[in-house]
Prior knowledge:
By secondary structure, this protein is of the alpha+beta class. The protein is 43% helix and 11% strand. The chain has a 14-stranded mixed sheet with strand order 8-9-7-6-11-10-19-18-17-12-16-15-13-14. A three-stranded mixed sheet has the order 22-21-26. 46% of the residues are buried.
Amino acid sequence: xxxxxxxxxxxxxxxxxxxxxxxxxxxxxxxxxxxxxxxxxxxxxxxxxxxxxxxxxxxxxxxxxxxxxxxxxxxxxxxxxxxxxxxxxxxxxxxxxxxxxxxxxxxxxxxxxxxxxxxxxxxxxxxxxxxxxxxxxxxxxxxxxxxxxxxxxxxxxxxxxxxxxxxxxxxxxxxxxxxxxxxxxxxxxxxxxxxxxxxxxxxxxxxxxxxxxxxxxxxxxxxxxxxxxxxxxxxxxxxxxxxxxxxxxxxxxxxxxxxxxxxxxxxxxxxxxxxxxxxxxxxxxxxxxxxxxxxxxxxxxxxxxxxxxxxxxxxxxxxxxxxxxxxxxxxxxxxxxxxxxxxxxxxxxxxxxxxxxxxxxxxxxxxxxxxxxxxxxxxxxxxxxxxxxxxxxxxxxxxxxxxxxxxxxxxxxxxxxxxxxxxxxxxxxxxxxxxxxxxxxxxxxxxxxxxxxxxxxxxxxxxxxxxxxxxxxxxxxxxxxxxxxxxxxxxxxxxxxxxxxxxxxxxxxxxxxxxxxxxxxxxxxxxxxxxxxxxxxxxxxxxxxxxxxxxxxxxxxxxxxxxxxxxxxxxxxxxxxxxxxxxxxxxxxxxxxxxxxxxxxxxxxxxxxxxxxxxxxxxxxxxxxxxxxxxxxxxxxxxxxxxxxxxxxxxxxxxxxxxxxxxxxxxxxxxxxxxxxxxxxxxxxxxxxxxxxxxxxxxxxxxxxxxxxxxxxxxxxxxxxxxxxxxxxxxxxxxxxxxxxxxxxxxxxxxxxxxxxxxxxxxxxxxxxxxxxxxxxxxxxxxxxxxxxxxxxxxxxxxxxxxxxxxxxxxxxxxxxxxxxxxxxxxxxxxxxxxxxxxxxxxxxxxxxxxxxxxxxxxxxxxxxxxxxxxxxxxxxxxxxxxxxxxxxxxxxxxxxxxxxxxxxxxxxxxxxxxxxxxxxxxxxxxxxxxxxxxxxxxxxxxxxxxxxxxxxxxxxxxxxxxxxxxxxxxxxxxxxxxxxxxxxxxxxxxxxxxxxxxxxxxxxxxxx
Length: 1009
């Protein structure tokens, strides 16, 4: 009690001293010495004063001024220390006389301890959490003949308290009990607990800690209470487990930190069932670092926690037979290996399945719409057209639907690039359509779409080897971690390349040993077995693809807007899915907007069309002795289905068409918003749909009018491979963006080439199948590498553009900021000591320094310079540019490079610049009689854009100039094959045919052997 009274007395003395310093001393100085400098001013301005008096006044004034300056420094130190104490931080050093700030710190600390003695400790509480148990992700089983309800299996995550080990802290200069209480105990008011833990302990300088100890000395080693939180950044004796560190900001909580970590790694917000186990793991990993009482809901600003390794994205590409798991970020799935890319669940479990078999919980609607909702919110946040946000609600919001759209656009644009005349550019879709395409790319899974397409053709190939094998009745397909799954209407003998699902007699899986490249090669020349197989919605295990032809008749009931939106999904899916594009869609009694899709017909006279159509289908059924499926498997006529979409007022038409659809050998499918006498039924809401009698639950994709229009505009822009306009100069073509400087008029060609192609400390290679980065010192994570490549292409990018490109679903700027901080650290600093990645504070733009080189920007600069020169100089510049081209742009890049290999604004521009450079170099080489250089230039152009027809014309002319008549014919045949690759009815361009006629007359025809 006596010690407490003495401590209280010392504290009150400190308060009195502070009051005296801040109030009494300045009053006394004013009373006895006057205002600062007053005596000095008086002595210098009074002419009547004697020299002796002036000297006395100057001396007295100088002493008074020194006293005022000393007081000012002490008062300033007290203010700084007081502000730091109130904020709970360590005060910064200030320029004062020796000992002044230390004296002020001692007074403020004593005063703070006295005040805290009368104040009960209250923890600062961050945003509270609602405790959530770890929940297993619901799994939807595709079942035939029964309807499965969905259940959630909640598994509580046990929380085990870990005893804190004995830990110490070495006092540093300027530390106080209050600071350490704030740092280790979460509250400066708990400083007494820290002192109590060290009572009686003898410090290194011989001082014994007692109840009267208030000041700390550097070098003291203090024991920390058992419930102290050791900041991870202090380099405490305990090792930091694998994972990254994150610092808590105001208002954050562990659930939010876990959400941000998964969102950053997966590129989408996790669902609650996906997040709960990771959140529990984060709590357990940081159990020793939680402030008392160890409640994960109570965390404090400035604390640091370990972020555990992120598990693989369940909706990302994952191998069916993966190698040993690596506890790192979700691996990049190598192209053309292991099936395939969307998480899925096994088909239905029969009643006889052993208890250990996986159950089939359903009701995926709660988790499935997450991507849709996030994308819609992002669309509203970024100020774009709100309708574009609907991309995530319709076909563009399905991973494989958006992936199929990307594949189709890429292939059609490839045809355009192959037939583009040099010096022209393909037509550009409207800005709204381009924005829609960019948003759909954020959720696109092109690899999943490739697996579905390849399996569809591979099944035809395998069945063709077995003429007597019954054709399977495929109702649905789904691609995921178990491979590609096929749900059959009835049991069927499995064929080579597929295995029977162990849990169901009506489900097959693609053999997991097969590779994507292998099945694409085997089935590449075959007709798709199910051309009307299209994605119609989501399940918990991935997007659901229904074979509309096999299902045959579907009666849909629900709200009219929802039903019509689902029918728009079917129409747009058929327009974008490569295997389904030959199918025709006929819409009756629905909105006329569907007519914007090239494969949709809206008859002007529905009654006449129905009569004619039914007549043709009956004749076809009588003529054929095999089903359309068998016709596709065995050589013969090939029939693609007609999909008839009927509105609610078309019940009579539905009954007429239903009769021919029920015939065995007719390729017809009907989806009607009206009752049909037979067939399947779908009860539809915006969040839930069930296909009876198969019992398949899914969340339907509902396509909006605006989305249909945007898809139509995108497809229309690429519909005609020969359609293009004059080239539009891009300001970036100046070459300045390359970081190569502006071309000097007096600079020689060799010097210019050397300056542009000189290697930089960091090099980014984009002009080949797989982007590469060198000079970083260590291999960056896949997404970080893609961000660096993106910056190298653009050189200057706004922070908003970066976030929208790489983190479109992130709800926090912190995710992008942390990643860009990693990028800046990897790029390091340049010779000038500045970061190679800087940000312009006023404009919010990230700028890449010239010390980061890029092959594309070199090509850009070299070709720009070549256009300003002629003759040998132009040839050398173009040769130097083309030497940097290594092949198809990003053809083997992973999904992180979607901005490069799926954005036609980028890869299309690169292709145009290189092909035009190759054409110009070929022309110049032919003019100078250098046929070998002309062939080399054409080969470079064909390496980047295979089948580019102008390159074949260069090759034909070079062969003719060399007297190689066979070479002319070979090049012409290759051009013809390239034209047929566009479509069987496409011929070579007129200039190619005219050139062949001219050259045939100028050279000797090839001799027959």
